[in-house]
Design goal:
Distance between the termini: 52 Å
Strand content: 5-15%
Number of strands: 13
Order of helices and strands: EHEHEHEHHEHEEHEEEHEEHEHHH
Radius of gyration: 20 Å
Helix content: 40-55%
CATH class: Alpha Beta
Shape: globular
CATH superfamily: NAD(P)-binding Rossmann-like Domain
Structural class: alpha/beta
Strand order of the largest sheet: 3-2-1-4-5-6-11
CATH topology: Rossmann fold
C-alpha cells in the first residue's frame, strides 16, 4: 500500500486530494496546525475524516516537519499548506514569507535528510505571473509577482527546482491557475459571490459588495486539478506544469452567471466597494496547459458556466438546509458576518 503525506489537508485542495488518494488505495496522512478551533469541516463534508491519519505539524517548525516524515514514511508528499489568500498577504507580508516561502525550504530540507527517495509535489500558483502583458501564460512565461503571497510562492517555486537539480530530489511544481469548488473558503471572491447570492435569494442579505469587477481569471474546477497533482508524481521524471482551462473570465461575468442561476438580476444587488481593491491588482490571467495535455494526458472537463452553477447550487442548498434546522459540516460559523446570521432567531413563519 502506498503512503502519502498531505500538508494543508484541511484546505480545499487537501481535502479533495485526500479523497482521491483514498479511493486509489493509499494510506493518507495529513498535517494540520493545532488551533483553538479545529478546522476539519471539509474532511467531514466529504465523509473521509475518520480515514485520515492526522499529524500535528507546522511549516514554521522544522522539528515538527521531521516528526511528520518519520511518522508517515511517505512514498509521496503533496505540499498544499500555505498562507493562501492573496489579500491577507498584504496585511501579513512577513507571515506570508515565513509560511509560504521559507516553510517550503524547511520541508525540502527535512525530505533531503529523512526520506530523499520520496516524491514531492509543490503547489505553485498562477499569481507568479503578476500583472503581465502576455496573451497567455505557460511554463516559459516570465514571472513578475505582484503581492507578498506571490513573492513568497516564487521563492518556494524556485527552491523546489533548486532541490530537484541540486540534490536530485523528485520534486515537481504545479503552476495551478485559479481552481474553485463548493469547498472554497468564503474569503475567495468566487465563493463570496455564490454564498452571498444564496443569502440574497433567501432574503437573508440585501447586497453583495465586490472590488475589481474587471479582473480576469482562468477558473477551473478543483476536483479535476487534484488528479493532475497525482499524475505529476507518477511520471518517470519530475517537472513543472501549468494547469489551466485556457479560458479567462471577469469577476463580473462570474457574478452575472451566479445570479442567473437563481433567477435574479445581479445589477439589483451588486455594488463596488473600494475597500476590497488590492494595492497591486493582477488584471489578467489566462493559462496555456499544452504541456500538461501532451505529457500528462490531462485536460479540464468542467467549463466556466458549469463551475459557477455547481458552486451556486451548493451554497443555496446549504442555506436552505440551515433554514430547516439541519446540522452538517460547513464553514459559515468560522466567519463573523455569517455567524451573526446563523445566530439570529428567525421566525420560520416568514418563510
Amino acid at each position: 500500500m502506498k503512503k502519502a503525506l498531505i500538508t494543508g489537508i484541511t484546505g480545499q485542495d487537501g481535502a479533495y486530494l485526500a479523497d482521491f488518494l483514498l479511493k486509489k488505495g493509499y494510506k493518507v496522512y495529513g498535517t494540520y496546525r493545532r488551533l483553538s478551533t479545529p478546522n476539519f469541516w471539509r474532511l467531514q463534508y466529504l465523509g473521509i475524516f475518520d480515514d485520515i491519519e492526522l499529524v500535528p505539524s507546522d511549516l514554521i517548525d522544522s522539528g515538527s516537519l521531521v516528526e511528520a516524515l518519520e511518522a508517515s514514511h511517505p512514498d509521496e508528499i503533496y505540499n498544499l499548506a500555505a498562507q493562501s489568500f492573496v489579500g491577507a498577504s498584504f496585511e501579513q507580508p512577513i507571515g506570508a514569507g515565513e509560511i509560504t516561502g521559507l516553510g517550503v525550504t524547511r520541508l525540502l530540507e527535512a525530505i533531503r535528510k529523512v526520506c530523499p527517495e520520496t516524491r514531492f509535489y509543490h503547489a505553485s500558483t498562477s499569481e507568479l505571473y503578476g500583472d503581465n502583458s502576455f496573451e497567455y501564460q505557460d511554463e516559459n512565461t516570465p514571472f513578475a509577482p505582484s503581492s507578498p503571497y506571490s513573492a513568497a510562492k516564487l521563492y518556494s517555486h524556485a527552491m523546489t527546482r533548486i532541490y530537484r537539480e541540486g540534490y536530485n530530489l523528485f520534486a515537481s511544481n504545479g503552476i495551478l491557475f485559479n481552481h474553485e469548488s463548493p469547498l472554497r473558503g468564503l474569503e475567495f471572491v468566487t465563493r463570496k459571490i455564490t454564498n452571498s447570492a444564496a443569502k440574497i435569494k433567501l432574503g437573508l442579505e440585501s447586497k453583495l459588495e465586490l472590488g475589481n469587477m474587471n479582473a480576469r481569471r482562468d477558473w477551473g474546477y478543483a476536483p479535476e486539478y487534484i488528479k493532475m497533482m497525482w499524475m505529476m508524481l507518477q511520471q518517470d521524471e519530475p517537472g513543472d506544469f501549468v494547469i489551466a482551462t485556457n479560458e479567462t473570465h471577469t469577476v463580473k461575468e462570474f457574478a452575472i452567471k451566479a445570479f442567473e442561476c437563481i433567477d435574479l438580476n445581479w445589477e439589483s444587488y451588486v455594488e463596488v466597494n473600494e475597500k476590497y481593491m488590492r494595492p497591486n491588482e493582477v488584471s489578467y490571467l489566462k493559462g496555456n496547459c499544452e504541456k500538461a495535455r501532451s505529457v500528462l494526458g490531462w485536460h479540464p472537463h468542467t467549463k466556466f458556466n458549469e463551475l459557477v452553477e455547481i458552486m451556486m447550487v451548493a451554497d443555496l442548498e446549504r442555506w436552505q438546509r440551515w433554514r430547516k434546522g439541519e446540522h452538517f459540516p460547513w464553514d459559515a460559523s468560522n466567519y463573523p458576518n455569517e455567524k451573526s446570521i446563523l445566530s439570529r432567531k428567525l421566525n420560520k413563519d416568514t418563510y
